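Hello,

I think I submitted the uridine 5'-triphosphate job twice by accident. Can you confirm which output corresponds to this input? Input:
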Amino acid sequence: MTITKAVVPAAGLGTRFLPATKSTPKEMLPVVDKPAIQYVVEEAVAAGLEDVLMITGRSKHSLSDHFDAMPEVESALEAKGDTDRLARVRKSSALADIHYVRQGEPLGLGHAVLRAKRHVGNEPFAVLLGDDLIDERDPLLPRMLEVAEERGGCVLALMEVPREQISLYGCAVVEQTDDDDVVRVTGLVEKPSVEEAPSNLAVIGRYVLDPEIFEVLERTQPGRGGEIQLTDALAELAGEDAAKGRGVYGVVFRGRRYDTGDRLDYIKAVVQIAVAREDLGPDLRAWLTEFTAGGME
Ligand code: UTP
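Support: Only one job matched these inputs. Its output is below.
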């Protein structure tokens, strides 16, 4: 079955980025000159998913306004003949068929995904976390969609992280498959301590999910941090009951990824993406070289 729908949860509280996120969702923080969420929607569209459901919370308006047309600004740019900026503004409002649903209370990522049930129906779908950027030079989602179409079940994106960082992530227990970059996930633990972690494979913010996840999420109790965890529902599908379901697979990603909800990673994303741009890269590179040579003061 061809997968056409993407769900983008963007209703978290963003406490790691306070006070910037008091009245702005962290997904709206600009990475160079686009908010993080626009990169995520562009990634979904590039992978052929043009039906995007955004799960929103407080300050929903800035998210939906961003993907709306902006007639006053567009006519001002048109009158000035500023075609470049006009094209950039228009691109953000004509990207995809975007729908919105409110989460209500931020009860966890699993709860946010469950809010997509009515819109998604009985089809497999992708989930892209709105604060997690995958560098467009290292496409990941097309490979995950391919694996889901070949094998069925759910497909997670996994990334090797230094062992001391594993407690920031969901952590996977895996078995190798005959595909180099694909593993079978046999267990999952949300944010384990370094000592308890079964591997250094972290779950990152891209998923392709079978609709059977909704049924599991409906009975998933709050777990770590009192939140309904998507990882706990996936652990059920990966674990003992796997024979009944269609299994959980992981694609091991070795490209560039940025967690823009983390302050340091956010700064790295801005620098790395700006350095790669034709308009800003050359000047920024020259300045960075000077800055680092000068002892970074
Ligand atoms: P995070 O755990 O990074 O989000 O969720 P958070 O709780 O906002 O972050 P901090 O720790 O307080 O800074 C990952 C993704 O899931 C969404 C977030 O918006 C983010 O895109 N999310 C999380 C929801 O949509 N709803 C929730 O209840 C929790």
